[in-house]
Structures are given as C-alpha cells and as structure tokens.
Design goal:
Helices cover about 70% and strands about 0% of the residues. The longest helix is centred in the first third of the chain and has 33 residues. The relative contact order is 0.12.
Length: about 300
C-alpha cells in the first residue's frame, strides 16, 4: 500500500532530501538564526546584558539614524550606484556575450572569454591597490603621464565628483566576464534552426541579433535583473571599502549603507545604530523585490519570480 502524508513523501524521496539537507542547514544556520539579532535595533546595547538582556529603547536608534542626516545620503548613494551597475553591467555583458557567440574562430573566442573572465577572480583588495597606484596624486600612473605631457595632475582622492564614474567603470570591468558567461549560455540554448532559417531568408548578422537573439534573451534578462533589484539597497562592501577606505572627503558620493554600518560599528561602537541601519536596509530590499516582481507579473506573469 502506498504511503501517504509528509513522512511517506519523505521516505520515498529520502535520497533527494538528503542531498538537499546541507543547503537547508546552511541557510537555517547563517540566514535565519542570525535574524534573532534584529532585536538589537530596538535596544540600548551593553556588554553586561548582551543581545537579549540589554534594555529596550524603542525606536531611538532609528530616530538617531534619520536625524543624523546620513540616512538619505547613504540610501541615495546605494540605490543610484546599484541602478547604474544594473544598467551598465547588463548592457555590456549582453553585448560581450553576443560578440563571443558571433565571433569567428574557436581559439579567438576562448582567449577573449578567458581574458574577460580574469578580473572576476581578482580580490577587491588588489583592485583597490591597483586604483591607488593609478590615481595617487604624487606618484600615480595617471598623474605621472599628465605631468609628462605638460598637464596639471588630477587630485582624484580629494574630489568626490570623479568617483561615481570610476566605481561604475571598475564594477563593469570586474563583472563583465562572469555576467557574459551566463548570457552566453542562454544564447547557445537558442534553437540553431532559427538562425539558419533567418540566414536563408537573407537576414544579416545585425538582423539576426535584433530579431532572434535579443527576444530569446529577454526571459534571462528579466530573471537576472529581478535578482539584482532585490539587492538594490545592498552595496558591495568589498568594492566601496577597498576603493575608498575611510576617506571622509569622498563620503558624500561614495558612502553606502553597508560602509556606514561598518563604520558605526567599528569606530563609534554604536551597535544599536548599526543594527537599525541594517534592519532598515533589509526592509527596503524586501519591499523593492516585491514591487519589482509585482510589476513584472502585471506585464507578463510567466517571467515573474513568484
């Protein structure tokens, strides 16, 4: 007689469930259990009381965060940087994937793909050191070249307006190879008979890209953009901290929620304020992915995440 219910299902699929168990335990341990620390956002933390023994202070941490004048600045910077990253990175990754797919020559394609993928494996610490050696006012490569041709050096590390462009370009350079591989995999999954039929009908390479490749890439683009939108209020701490460090002159254009939380925790030891900013960030991210998914469902529910 066939077993029914949850335990019957678990017994019948025990091998699959055992394979799934490590991932389930990982997320429980590192994603759900730490959620208990959210209470710190509503407490005046002290070492003697700890997380659960410290006195409650209501929304004082949130009030201090918003009244400090930093909330709007870091929220704006985080959102605008991520919007720029989503647009620029995806456009360049799609272009690179199409170029690799259309490229003639097996060895050329492999060499180009390897060169594009290489920056992805470089640590942000190393990238920060490279940027410093390029942009340093006194001995940086850029300013040395400018002086050599009789031009004035550029004080990049004391000028906030340069950094939005620098950070967007560095992010695009570092993620180009990884993102293009995902789009290239989607392109290679397109039925080759469609390209052959288009070529017989006289379509050139640009017409094949516009009429076949891009429409078939649309579902992949939607999924990847939705996943990126879910992190639109979560900055890449490794990038921002290693590229900028604790240079207060640049905070107006480079400080994001993640770096603000880190400095609040390490320099001023404001654990409650850090927890409040982190909780605020999580709520914004959750609301954003719900709104983005709702918008996609209204347009075409088959492309929505849920």
């Amino acid at each position: 007689m066939k077993q029914r219910g949850f335990w019957g299902y678990a017994f019948q699929n025990k091998t699959l469930l055992l394979m799934l168990a490590p991932a389930v335990f990982f997320f429980i341990l590192f994603a759900y259990v730490p959620m208990a620390g959210i209470v710190l956002a509503f407490k005046q933390y002290n070492n003697s009381g700890g997380i659960f023994g410290s006195p409650w202070n209501g929304i004082s941490n949130f009030r201090f965060f918003f009244e400090s004048g930093n909330a709007w600045m870091v929220t704006r910077n985080t959102a605008l940087y991520n919007i720029a990253f989503i647009i620029v990175n995806n456009v360049l990754q799609i272009a690179a994937a199409i170029f690799l797919f259309e490229a003639v020559g097996k060895w050329f394609r492999k060499l180009t793909q390897t060169m594009l993928f290489l920056p992805y494996f470089i640590s942000w610490v190393v990238v920060g050191a490279i940027a410093y050696n390029l942009f340093n006012y006194d001995v940086g490569t850029l300013n040395v070249l400018l002086k050599a041709v009789g031009m004035q050096p550029v004080d990049i590390y004391n000028t906030p307006s340069y950094w939005p462009v620098i950070l967007v370009l560095v992010s695009a350079w570092k993620t180009l190879g990884y993102g293009s591989v995902m789009y290239l995999a989607a392109i290679t999954g397109i039925d080759n008979e469609m390209y052959e039929a288009a070529e017989i009908d006289g379509a050139n390479v640009f017409q094949r890209i516009w009429r076949i490749t891009l429409p078939n890439l649309f579902p992949t683009v939607i999924i990847l953009v939705l996943l990126a939108v879910g992190n639109i209020f979560r900055g890449d701490f490794g990038m921002f901290y290693n590229m900028v460090g604790n240079n207060g002159l640049l905070f107006s254009s480079t400080d994001v929620i993640d770096t603000f939380v880190f400095r609040s925790l390490t320099t001023s030891n404001e654990i409650g304020l850090s927890a409040a900013a982190g909780f605020y960030q999580s709520v914004l991210g959750f609301a954003t992915i719900l709104l983005a998914n709702y918008a996609v469902r209204k347009y075409d529910k088959d492309h929505a995440l849920f």
